[in-house]
Amino acid sequence: MLKNYGGLSIISGIAIGVLLTAGWLAYGKIEAEVKTGLEKTLNTVLQTSRKSLESWAGGVKQEATVWAGLPVTQAFVAHLAEKHGSSINPHRHEVLQKEFGPLSKVHNYLGLYIFRKDNLSATSFLTDNINVLALYAQNKSFFEEIWAGKVVLSLPKRVKPHDQTAKLAVARIFVGAPVRDQENNVVGALVLSLSPQDGFSQILQRGRLGNSGETYAFNASGLLISESRFDAQLRQMNLIKPGQRAALNIYIHDPETNLLVNGPFVGNIHDHPLTRMATHALTFQDGMNLEGYNDYRGVPVVGVWAWDKSLNIAIATEMDAEEAYLFLTSMKKVMIGLTIISTALVGFLFIIYVIGREKLATSEEDLSITLNCIGEGVIATDVSGNVMRMNPVAEKLSGWLFEEAKGRPLEDIFKVINAITKKPVMNPVKKVMASGKVAGLSNHTILLARTGEKLQIADSAAPIRNRKNKICGVVLVFRDVSDEYTMAEELSTALGDAERANQAKSEFLASMSHELRTPMNAVLGFAQMLQFDLKYPLSLSQNEYVENILAGGHHLLELINEILDLARIESDQLPVTVESIDACKIIEDCVALILPLCQPQNIKIIQSADPVLPIMVRTDRLRFKQALLNLHSNAVKYNKQGGTITLKTKEIEAGFLRVYVSDTGVGIPDDEHHSIFNMFHRLGADPTIAREGTGIGLTVTKLLIERLAGHVGFESEEGVGSTFWIELPLASNTKTLIWSDALQVGIGAIDQDHQVIIRLLNKLCRSSVGQSELAAVVEELWDYSQYHFRREETIMKLCEYPHLEHERVAQEKLVSKIESLNEAWQTYQEPEMLENLRTFLRSWWLDHIINVNTELAKYAKGKEQRIRKALNDLE
Ligand code: ADP
After folding, report:
1. Whether pLDDT at 689 is above 50
2. At 118, is the pLDDT very low, low, confident or very high (cuts 50, 70, 90)?
3. For residue range 146-177, what is the model confidence (pLDDT) as tens digits?
4. What is the 3-state secondary structure (H, E, C) of 79-102?
5. How far is the CA of 560 from the centre of ligand 1 (A)?
6. pLDDT of 687 higher than 60
7. For ligand 1, is residue 230 a contact (CB within 6 Å)?
8. Rounded to the nearest whole angstrom, what is the distance from the C-alpha of residue 724 to the centroid of ligand 1?
9. Is 808 helix (H, G, I), strand (E, B) or coil?
10. Fewest 10 Å CB contacts: which of 76, 592, 753, 757?
11. In angstroms, how far is the first alpha carbon of the chain from the final one?
């Protein structure tokens, strides 16, 4: 797998490399800057301390010189010579004390000694009682330099106090200046005694940096001669004793282990070398180490140092490396962390990428397999309508190879025209992009393949949405329906034949029923006359025969009447008179008629609502009553002994009244529901529910009500009862068209077409019809209009109708208007667009029927035979 992503590995590697190099370069720069800053700081502290020490030393030397030059000092030296130091005149002491006392307090002198050069007799003033002889013995070279005329400053050193019993020696700095006689000969020395903690150590203590930095001094032997910052630590480390100070007690040796971590110290410190700093400083050189070395506690430090020739001491400024590089160490940790995280991140991203690629490749493969297996043509485009994918079926149908089609506009590959108008059909991608919804091509769409072949196709296009639900393309699915069309055409021809045969049958039945009714009425009439003949009354058995004739005859007459109605409706010969009538009144009439039938079975009629106000419907009074009576009589016929019939009215969807007739009868089994309105359908197989009837009532009811632009339906549960209902347009409903005699133009074929068209228009105008069903209705209306126009044109030509050309233009306009309105509605699916389409179609057709076709009828008079023949030839 990694082999496939070699390039990517290199890119990831380089990314890591660049990231790390940049990070570490930045760190290197910061490190250098930190070191430079550290060096500067340490050097500044060291040099400041050194200069301060030098100026302090110069100051005390100056003071000693001044005191040595005072006449009182010289006089005292002369007096010492006289007395040989044995018994000093107390008055002279007093004079000196008076002279020096106040000054020594200001300058913190601990003692002041005056020595006579020739016999080294000496005396001390002020408070320090150091044994002056011991002082002399310890500082031979010190005095030699004074006798040579120099002012001398001794380094801090340990001296025994005057009181020999005192165990602890004390640390002192001595400053000596020569006392001269009149002849300028050095005859004595004035020595001042100072505590190293005043001035000397104070200056060095000022050089303590941060929490661990210190500046200290040590002599040529490596002995620490200034105060240490770490006395407490050194005691714990066992490098000095309890109560001891580090100054003048420890040498700058490296314990060679960090005693702060691994302490306390065991062994002899003198077996260990001097620290690297001390070793270098004692070669009388200045130096610096920022990399780190052990100090006298074994703790890694960084430092700078110098050998001061004038003071004859080494001075060092050091700081714990940990503190000095605290920022750098944290920074380094951050950098290492960053390095690890970024490496891990890049690695992780790489893995994710690799997995993602694998998944993508798999899903690509799956998609390709799926597309290749689909039996319909599939083309996917991007948002601009350029081809992105194409499956083999699409390649075959369009005649384009995907490789050639890829990236090209869909219009180049998928050229579609309307089969009837031959005009290009709107690009389905544009339709989908505009509406964001699934769109289908209307029927009669022809794909012009690259090969020149013309294929009748059906298709639909749907938006492709990304994870954010944004449209990122369109997928078009289409198939070759040429065969289906051929079959549909054949079917339609067959249907046409069947319809014509049915029409002929209906016409025959209509005339036959009529012919049958007359003799039937005669039979019944004569039979009744036999019964009522008082002159020759019938015997009992004869009367029984006549009763049988009458019963059979009535049944037959009922059958004939219903068949007659049926045949008339089917052959569109049923006369219909539309008027506004009160539905409640009709219901009342029906109840009155049906009540006598209820009595034998003790059936109760309940009117659930008893409206005070009339409910006006627009319908044919007679036919409405007939249909309602049918339902009523069924509700009685199929009811149980002592059952009920409930009547209810309700305004349903805008503009329709529904009349319910419910019974508590035998009900209808579920498996019979679908065929209940079929002609001659009776549930007669079951003798318990078979009642007298013809099996035509419901069929006639349905056809009648539909003829009146209404609907019939029912709900039923076996053993519980049934509810049948009739729906008719309210008087206020002007949108629903009812085919009535007023619309009849008198040309049979045209009137028949108009009835179909009005039925379709009513279907289109019903708001309860679903979206896809509406599309199918528009389609059917479109097809039927084309069919009607062809027939109409034939008639117009035959009748030499003078406005044929004008009519052609009007029809063309209608076609393109329907196309654009339908297109707009299909694309945007806005209710208001549908309403536009409905209104336009309704008014166009009404105008066409009332004006154009009525006018045509004038020219068709007397040509009915020829018209029928011409239309037959057309089909
Ligand atoms: P029929 O003359 O047989 O009543 P219809 O066309 O009126 O013919 O009814 C067809 C069949 O539907 C009836 O035979 C009956 O089985 C069933 N049917 C109609 N109305 C009802 C009802 N209210 N309850 C139960 N069955 C019914």
Report:
1. no
2. confident
3. 999 999 998 888 877 655 555 566 788 889 99
4. HHHHHCCCCCCHHHHHHHHHHHHH
5. 18
6. no
7. no
8. 11
9. helix
10. 592
11. 69
* C-alpha of residue 708 to centroid of ligand 1, in Å: 22
pTM of the entire structure?
Answer: 0.46
Nearest to 420 by CA among 814, 853, 854: 814
Pair 378, 392: CB distance under 8 Å: no
d(CA 228, CA 214) in angstroms, rounded, equals 8
For the ranges 50-64, 247-261, 741-755, 763-777, the lowest mean pLDDT is seen at 763-777
| Cα–chain center distance at 863 | 73
> Rounded to an integer, what distance in angstroms lies between the CA atom of residue 564 and that of residue 576?
15
Q: Are 279 and 251 in contact (CB under 8 A)?
A: no
Residue with CA at minimum distance from ligand 1 atom 21: 634
For 198-228, the pLDDT digits (tens) are 889 889 999 998 899 999 999 999 999 999 9
Rounded average pLDDT over 772-797: 85
**Which among 377, 388, 460, 448 has a CA at the least distance from the CA of 418?**
448
Helix intervals (H) in 374-465: 392-398, 402-405, 410-413, 428-435
By C-alpha distance, which of 579, 575, 584, 598 is closest to 645? 598
Residue type for position 772 = S
- Tell me the CA–centroid distance for residue 642 and ligand 1, in Å: 19
Cβ proximity of 179 and 190 under 8 Å: yes
Residues with Cβ within 8 Å of 615's Cβ and at least 6 positions away in sequence, in order, are 582, 583, 584, 649, 651, 657, 730
Task: Please name the residue whose Cα sits nearest to atom 25 of ligand 1.
Answer: 667
Whether the per-residue pLDDT at 127 is higher than 80: the answer is no
Nearest ligand 1 atom to alpha carbon 699: 6
Q: Hey, whose CA ends up nearest to atom 18 of ligand 1?
A: 634
At 427 the three-state DSSP class reads coil
Residue 136's pLDDT is: 65
State the Cα–Cα distance between residues 864 and 418, nearest whole angstrom. 35
Q: Is 596 helix (H, G, I), strand (E, B) or coil?
A: helix
CB atoms within 10 A of CB 121: 21
Q: Are strands 454-465 and 471-480 parallel, antiparallel or unpaired?
A: antiparallel
Check: CB of residue 554 under 8 Å from CB of residue 524.
yes
Contact by Cβ (8 Å): 781, 764: yes
- 524 and 553 Cβ atoms separated by less than 8 Å: yes
CA distance 132 to 74: 19
- Find the helix packing angle between 804-828 and 428-435, rounded to 10°: 50
pLDDT score at 243: 84
Q: What is the pLDDT of residue 83?
A: 62
Q: How far apart are CA 5 and CA 355, in angstroms?
A: 11
CB-based contacts of 215: which residues, under 8 Å, 6+ apart?
45, 46, 49, 204, 205, 206, 207, 208, 226, 315, 316, 317, 318
Q: Separation of 682 CA from ligand 1 center, angstroms? A: 6
pLDDT tens for residues 495-522? 767 766 666 666 676 666 667 777 788 8
Judged by DSSP in three states, 242 sits in coil
How far apart are the C-alpha atoms of 562 and 51, rounded to whole Å?
138
- pLDDT tens digit string along 301-318? 999 999 999 888 999 999
CA 630–ligand 1 middle distance (angstroms)? 9
Burial of 581 (0-12, 13-18, 19+ CB in 10 A): buried
Residue 3: pLDDT band with limits 50, 70, 90: very low
With a 6 Å cutoff on the Cβ, whether 634 touches ligand 1 is: yes
